[in-house]
Amino acid sequence: MPKTIKKVGVLTSGGDSPGMNAAIRSVVRTCAYHNIECIGIYRGYQGMIEGDFKEMGPRSVNNIVNKGGTILKSARSVEFRTPEGRKKAHENLVKAGVDALVVIGGDGSFTGGLIFNSEFDFPVMGIPGTIDNDIYGTSFTLGYDTALNTVVDCIDKIRDTASSHNRLFFVEVMGRDAGHIALNAGIGAGAEEILIPEEDLGLDRLLDSLQKSKASGKSSSIVVIAEGDKIGKNVFELKDYVEANLPEYDVRVSVLGHMQRGGSPSCFDRVLASRLGVKAVESLLEGKSNYMVGLREDKVILTPLEQAIKGKSEIDRELLRVSDIMST
Amino acid sequence: MPKTIKKVGVLTSGGDSPGMNAAIRSVVRTCAYHNIECIGIYRGYQGMIEGDFKEMGPRSVNNIVNKGGTILKSARSVEFRTPEGRKKAHENLVKAGVDALVVIGGDGSFTGGLIFNSEFDFPVMGIPGTIDNDIYGTSFTLGYDTALNTVVDCIDKIRDTASSHNRLFFVEVMGRDAGHIALNAGIGAGAEEILIPEEDLGLDRLLDSLQKSKASGKSSSIVVIAEGDKIGKNVFELKDYVEANLPEYDVRVSVLGHMQRGGSPSCFDRVLASRLGVKAVESLLEGKSNYMVGLREDKVILTPLEQAIKGKSEIDRELLRVSDIMST
Amino acid sequence: MPKTIKKVGVLTSGGDSPGMNAAIRSVVRTCAYHNIECIGIYRGYQGMIEGDFKEMGPRSVNNIVNKGGTILKSARSVEFRTPEGRKKAHENLVKAGVDALVVIGGDGSFTGGLIFNSEFDFPVMGIPGTIDNDIYGTSFTLGYDTALNTVVDCIDKIRDTASSHNRLFFVEVMGRDAGHIALNAGIGAGAEEILIPEEDLGLDRLLDSLQKSKASGKSSSIVVIAEGDKIGKNVFELKDYVEANLPEYDVRVSVLGHMQRGGSPSCFDRVLASRLGVKAVESLLEGKSNYMVGLREDKVILTPLEQAIKGKSEIDRELLRVSDIMST
Amino acid sequence: MPKTIKKVGVLTSGGDSPGMNAAIRSVVRTCAYHNIECIGIYRGYQGMIEGDFKEMGPRSVNNIVNKGGTILKSARSVEFRTPEGRKKAHENLVKAGVDALVVIGGDGSFTGGLIFNSEFDFPVMGIPGTIDNDIYGTSFTLGYDTALNTVVDCIDKIRDTASSHNRLFFVEVMGRDAGHIALNAGIGAGAEEILIPEEDLGLDRLLDSLQKSKASGKSSSIVVIAEGDKIGKNVFELKDYVEANLPEYDVRVSVLGHMQRGGSPSCFDRVLASRLGVKAVESLLEGKSNYMVGLREDKVILTPLEQAIKGKSEIDRELLRVSDIMST
Fold first, then answer.
1. For chain A, which terminal residue's Cβ has fewer other Cβ atoms within 10 angstroms, N or C?
2. Which DSSP letter does residue D79 get?
3. Which annotated residues bind ADP (chains A, B, C, D) (predicted)?
4. Contact of B166 with C75, CB cutoff 8 Å
């Protein structure tokens, strides 16, 4: 029989993403709703080791649903990778009366949570927070939808200048080893071609596509490139390669960078964060542990953390076809 | 055996919504991809009656993926409700060599398409375009996600002034007879209370909730009210009622209005539009008719137009609970 | 010889506006830069009466430069209009060791400051914070530029739907008795006609202009109406009047409302706030009192508070002509 | 006596900037207002040489006031630098009946216009269109205000992630040889330090400032760096240098790039464009030539093109002090 949970700890870990604050708020208020206590743990697992805690009530999270970043801050913790570090962290939680943990982060953060659980039999629940959408068990990670909007807004601006000058732009976007951002934002931004890690089109195909585009009467083009693409050249080398092979093109490069991680979350991300926070806390109260909450097929579901870590979040191959048709 | 389709007509009808242009673009380019012709029909069914057509190739839809409104314009057509009107429309289509129709709009537009099909055995495919998300057979209509972002952006701004002055705001949002926008944007914007047509909380519950909110230490509050709510008072009467019963509150009203229908579509709506346009055209090419394309459980699916019209797009009742917990 | 100032109090009063937080930050950091103390006074003059103060150092104002509203909150104070109220306020300031006051607000707030100064010989400096731009002595008040951008963004969205449906929209904007917002945002948004308090065009001219617009081939139009316009009809009556006289028009009304007061300040407002805060504090340190800081002819200048209150911020009549030409 | 002008040509040249379309619209409509004709010249001087012209009436410029980029497109023209090229251009203008020219662009474009005038005694009027604000004779160039807002929006997003991770960010912004964007956007975004070409702080000062910032309790910082700064290291070398000297800092770099040139213009830029377009055309009609229109000290004025080209648009040194105080 699971012991009754009286106090939940919540932390954010790994790269921050828009919607993390909305998720923290949801965890805190769901605890209050069920009359249990909640503490915020600062700077992820490192703050757990240092006992950097703060009691949080429903008013502690006023006016953060719309804020980017994370009020609990995030950090990588080398020390948490050691048994000693985790022991210290556990002692701090016990001392503070914390019975269960909600970890908002990506697969690295979940791995930490899983090890922690296995060592101390401590209830852990994960909420997927990353812009990269590279987590198995959810169709949408927190911050992904916001990042897509940030990227299309940027490319819309770049398109203004591209079409005024009849230029070709290479735009590099985030996504780690996954092409979700590139593929979706590329379609959304009307990209001519999209390079993603999951699909190596090869350089010839790129040149071919650009030539056809010119021939079809397009005067300017945007190519969206995932940071993790496997084409074997970075975006600047790619520019040189294309200019060498297609001298009619004047290529400009834009690396969108860290702004993709920030900004006020979209409505979708705020609602998602609210739903996942409720589910995470209520699952803990039901005695569940070692799950990640997620949204799949329009429903909030649980996936074992282990699967969430090992599984691969596949891109939707239908979108490759859509992208291809859209660049007709 | 269905006759081969060589030319598709596309029109937008009813209230416009962000993403309609992206859907037009997708229809046009999917036709080009399959080497069939496409014509744009201006001002919905009225333009069909007047023969207001334009040939559209892939370059006709350059740089519209990010534009709000509809380049084909929209209009209500009284004449199309008469057999004579529809006859004229059919003659124009035949004269122009159009074999099949893609109708982008809401249930009224689909009803028109269904009647037209029944009279002339003319292939029709629907794409759900409305900000209200009130169509059965799809979890998301085109423009809905964008409207949610528009609404939360507005309420974020209103919250600045609400919390600077410790005030209560009543914000009326669109949605016709459905509470989707109110419920989701209300959660996204951190509303204290949300009034929707699907759930009549009653005036007592509202007063009660506002009193509890004050008691809990909240200094300002937002109440989001769907235009179709059933509480029996309009938003201005509601203000008077609350001020009469809770004199400690200074209530302000904001009716967001038509700006909710405009704006550059979100990435989600652009990708959705692209996917639905491909599916609509390819379904016609496969000989299908009288379906609406939609997105459900993460997949593009077909729903018979008749069901799409008669069915009801239910709100997700889990969200009512999430909203309740979030306003703790 | 003025006595040396060691501690400055800062408050925001009247309607809030974007940039107030940036101004608070500037006042606080300018004090720190000159090694004098600073306290924040909550809820304007009311907080002064209640002694609702907080010590503020440079780190108290981290990450607020981009936030709408005012962290010091604002309130109207009836009590401050009485000699007793002001006496209490003065005692609180003296008790807290405050030597001088920076008042961020509009002319009502400045009048309060001027009376306070005359009664207690207390140094007062004003910073014009209002979206209405209706203060003499500065070409730009804090929040005005942001409000203009908010208004044109909204009208851009409305235009999407207006031009999709060939409709006429009446959009009411803020500005109290001044037409600055209406005139500038109207030009920025490409309005067909602009109704402002400073210039009564009369109803005939409006009808005439709308008829000409239709004749010239415009299919949709936006009319921007200042809330303080003198045409003698409110915006809904105006709609009825126009529809009665020009039946070819289908008029929709949008009242933008309080969202105009919120939102993250524009760069212009943030820089302006930073400059005015520095000048306000440094002017106090130089022994000056009873001035408002402002920006005129590209320079930060001082205007006696009395003039700022009594003077009228005229609209630039060149803009009326520009508006007229632009709607050709 | 100047000959009567009956037809004005308008072109955009050099780098595009938000507001150029609003300026084109203003030129076109001011011509219509005065009953003279107007033609648009595509792709700047190159289109003049190729006779790439289009008649433009008031309806040709509907719905472009809010669009970034330039509908007339822009291009660099090598041929226009030759007497033969200019001769061909002149012949085309004469053949098309064009009497006068409005050039929207930067100093390079104005130089072209001045030479053209000197060779053919052809009336030329300049409108300053560049985001860099580096033109003498106007306090604001078209697009500058919009670019400032784009930059602060980006840095606001970056700050979310910087403050979540306690990181230092180096953000490179545009501006060619001028520090206007960096200085103003840096103040607006609350940058810790701003590096501009006009003021070489030196590397020691930068290290010193960052150390003080850490000591003062700031947990994250943004340094804004103008692309033309003279510190002798590019932004990536600067990162290495700082990390080598201040190992406690984990520096990230973001180069904002071309998105700074795009986007829907701010209200300020739209109004400015409208005013400058009116003045440009009306000055030509008054027989003036070889001037640039601009806004200085809140007034629309004329500056001889020669001065506009040779003069230097100085930064406001008061802002350096404000920046210094703000980073206290």
1. N
2. G
3. 25-29, 159, 190-192, 218-220
4. yes
Contact (CB<8Å) B254/C254 = no
CB contact under 8 A, B145 and A185: no
CA distance B119 to A200: 49
Q: Which residues on adjacent β-strands are paired with residue B170?
A: B223, B253
Domain D144-261 in CATH: superfamily? Phosphofructokinase domain (3.40.50.460)
Judging contacts by C-beta atoms under 8 Å, the chain B residues touching residue C261 are 157, 160-161
> With an 8 Å Cβ cutoff, are D164 and A69 in contact?
yes
Taking only the tens place, the pLDDT of each residue in D250-292 is 899 999 999 999 999 999 999 999 999 999 999 999 999 999 9
The answer on whether C296 is annotated among ligand-binding residues is no
Query: Does the beta-carbon distance from A258 to D15 stay under 8 Å?
Result: no
Give the catalytic positions of A in this structure.
132
D271–C188: do the CB atoms touch at under 8 Å?
A: yes
Nearest to B66 among A29, A156, A218 (CB): A156
Query: Is any Cβ of chain A less than 8 angstroms from the Cβ of D154?
Result: yes
Closest CA to A183 of A200, A174, A195, A192: A195
Q: Which of residues 237-266 of B touch C (CB under 8 A)?
A: 252-255, 257-263
Residue pair D177/D135 in contact (Cβ under 8 Å)? The answer is no
Angstrom distance (rounded) from CA A31 to CA A26: 8
Tell me the C-alpha distance between C271 and D182, whole Å: 12
What residues does each domain of chain C span? 7-143+265-310, 146-261
Beta-sheet pairing, A37-41 with A53-55: antiparallel
Catalytic residue among B16, B132, B229, B269: B132
C121 is an active site residue: no
Neighbours of chain A (3+ CB pairs under 8 A): B, D
Chains touching chain C at 3 or more Cβ pairs under 8 angstroms?
Answer: B, D
Q: Which residues of A touch B33 (CB under 8 A)?
A: 325, 328
Kindly state whether A67 is in contact with chain B, defined as any CB-CB distance less than 8 angstroms. no
Closest residue of D to A257, CA-based?
A: D254
Provide the CA A67 distance to its chain's centre, in angstroms. Answer: 16
Phi, psi (rounded to 5 degrees) for C11: -145, 160
Q: Do domains C7-143+265-310 and C146-261 have the same CATH topology?
A: yes
C146-261, what's its fold? Rossmann fold (3.40.50)
Average pLDDT over chain D reads 95
> Which stretches does DSSP call E strand in B193-314?
193-195, 221-226, 251-255, 291-296, 299-304
**Which DSSP string do the residues of D102-134 spell out, in sequence order?**
EEEE-HHHHHHHHHHHHHH---EEEEEB-TT--
Does residue C202 contact residue C170 with C-beta atoms inside 8 Å?
A: no
Amino acid at C73: K
Point out the residue among A25, A159, A325 whose CB comes nearest to the CB of B33.
A325
Per-residue pLDDT tens listing for chain C (328 residues): 457 999 999 999 999 999 999 999 999 999 999 999 999 999 999 999 999 999 999 999 999 999 999 999 999 899 999 999 999 999 999 999 999 999 999 999 999 999 999 999 999 999 999 999 999 999 999 999 999 999 999 999 999 999 888 889 999 999 999 999 999 999 999 999 999 999 987 889 899 999 988 888 887 899 999 999 888 889 999 999 999 999 988 899 999 999 999 999 999 999 999 999 999 999 999 999 999 999 999 999 999 999 999 998 999 999 999 999 999 8
The pLDDT tens digits for A155-189 are 999 999 998 888 899 999 999 999 999 999 999 99
Topology adopted by domain D7-143+265-310: Rossmann fold (3.40.50)
Gap from C275 CA to chain B (nearest CA, Å): 23
CB contact under 8 A, D261 and A159: no
Chain B contact present for C74, CB below 8 A: yes
The answer to whether A328 contacts B188, with C-beta atoms less than 8 Å apart, is: no
What the block records as the tokens of A150 is 């940030």
Q: Is the ipTM of this complex over 0.85?
A: yes
